[in-house]
Amino acid sequence: MVYRAGRPVMPQTVPDPHIVTVVLALLHHEPLDRRRLMQAVERRTSARLRLDEAAVRRLLRVLECGGAIRGRYVLPPRGPADKEYSLTAEGVLLLRASCLEWARYRDGIDELLADVATDRGAGLPAR
């Protein structure tokens, strides 16, 4: 649980359209199975974000069928095999395009919120 100003803050679930970018970005760093992928989101965002498990399962199938990621089964020391996913060259291209799209989106939102974020009279926290 994350706390801000002494109050617990619930993690936000990443909306479905944005999961692609999050998953590709995490797989860009290292191959991960589904469970570790979901844990990595929470760890890397200080528990501010989380992924919907069903949406991740669907997305991994779509990305694998589309050639953006490659899955292979890995036998852990104990228990059933886990499917570990890694980024392909096509996945890297998709990630780069997604990063450019996100940068444009972020810049637009920053412009829209620039005045609001500095208006302390509105009761909004400063950036």
Structural features, described:
The model has no long low-confidence stretch (mean pLDDT 85). The relative contact order is 0.14. Strands 4-7-6 form a three-stranded antiparallel sheet. A two-stranded antiparallel ribbon has the order 1-2. Strands 3-5 form a two-stranded parallel ribbon. The chain is α+β, with helices and mostly antiparallel strands. The chain is built from four helices and seven strands. The longest helix is centred in the last third of the chain and has 30 residues, at 89-118. It has a single domain (2-120), classed as Arc Repressor Mutant, subunit A (Orthogonal Bundle).
First CA to last CA: what distance?
22 Å
Query: Mind describing the biggest β-sheet?
Result: 3 strands, antiparallel
Architecture (CATH level 2) name: Orthogonal Bundle
Number of spatially distinct domains:
1
**Beta-strand content bin:** 15-25%
What is the radius of gyration computed over CA atoms, rounded to a whole number of angstroms? 18 Å
Number of strands: 7
Question: CATH topology, what is it called?
Answer: Arc Repressor Mutant, subunit A
Helix count equals 4
Quaternary structure: single chain
- The CATH class name reads Mainly Alpha
The shape is globular
Poorly predicted parts: none
Give descriptors for this structure.
two-stranded antiparallel ribbon, alpha+beta, 127 residues, 4 helices, Arc Repressor Mutant, subunit A
